[in-house]
């Protein structure tokens, strides 16, 4: 595999990943890779696991709840950084098949806590839905 990295001119990226001193450095380096390098790295990682008989875990997706036909589901959330009193909110509206219908997000220059940021998300989601004439909605926030 090493020669593949070299032939594709990814040797520098491979060495940089190997020299990562911490998990944080490693993750930052992976996130800064070009997408073709990421694909090659993942291929290399899975290949190594197969060679050492480490099978990747089988992930079973839990079915998510979708609203009944004719209803829309609004998921919303907010975040807050206590040090700066800066926050953000976001929402997504999905139909009964889980397809996105509408989404929105914004930064909050000044907020006091996460529940306040979440309340902005809910408020703006409901305002946007009302503006577009959407009805029969179900609200859900992060757990």
Task: Tell me what you see in this structure.
- There is one protein chain.
- The chain has helices at residues 2-7, 11-18, 23-31, 35-51, 114-131; strands spanning 72-81, 86-94, 100-108, 137-141.
- By secondary structure, the protein is an alpha+beta fold.
- The chain folds into 2 domains: 1-52, no CATH class; 72-141, Nucleotidyltransferase, domain 5, CATH 3.30.420.10.
- Strands 3-2-1-4 form a 4-stranded mixed β-sheet, covered by helices on one side.
- Strand 2 (86-94) and strand 3 form a beta hairpin.
- The longest helix is centred in the last third of the chain and has 18 residues, at 114-131.
- The chain is extended and about 60 Å long.
The count of DSSP E runs of length 2 or more, i.e. the number of strands, is 4
**Approximate helicity band:** 40-55%
CATH topology of the largest domain: Nucleotidyltransferase, domain 5
Radius of gyration: 22 Å
Distance between the termini: 43 Å
Output mean pLDDT: 78
With strands numbered from the N-terminus, the spatial order across the biggest sheet is 3-2-1-4
Main sheet record: 4 strands, mixed
Shape, please? extended
Number of domains: 2
Number of H- or I-type helical stretches: 5
InterPro entries: RNase_H-like_dom_plant, RNase_H-like_EbsB-rel, RNaseH-like_sf, RNaseH_domain, RNaseH_sf
Organism: Sorghum bicolor
Protein name: RNase H type-1 domain-containing protein
Pfam families: RVT_3
List keywords for this structure.
143 residues, alpha+beta, Nucleotidyltransferase, domain 5, 4-stranded mixed β-sheet, 5 helices, extended, RNA-DNA hybrid ribonuclease activity, RNase H type-1 domain-containing protein, nucleic acid binding, RNaseH_domain, RNaseH_sf
């Amino acid at each position: 595999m090493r020669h593949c990295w070299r032939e594709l001119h990814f040797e520098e990226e491979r060495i940089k990943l190997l020299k990562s001193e911490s998990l944080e450095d490693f993750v930052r380096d992976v996130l800064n890779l070009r997408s073709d390098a990421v694909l090659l790295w993942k291929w290399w990682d899975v290949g190594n696991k197969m060679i050492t008989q480490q099978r990747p875990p089988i992930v079973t997706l839990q079915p998510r709840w979708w609203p009944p036909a004719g209803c829309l589901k609004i998921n919303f959330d907010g975040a807050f950084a206590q040090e700066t009193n800066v926050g953000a909110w976001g929402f997504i509206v999905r139909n009964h098949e889980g397809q996105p219908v509408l989404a929105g997000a914004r930064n909050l220059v000044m907020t006091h806590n996460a529940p306040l940021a979440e309340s902005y998300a809910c408020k703006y989601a409901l305002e946007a839905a009302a503006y577009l004439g959407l009805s029969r909605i179900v609200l859900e926030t992060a757990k």
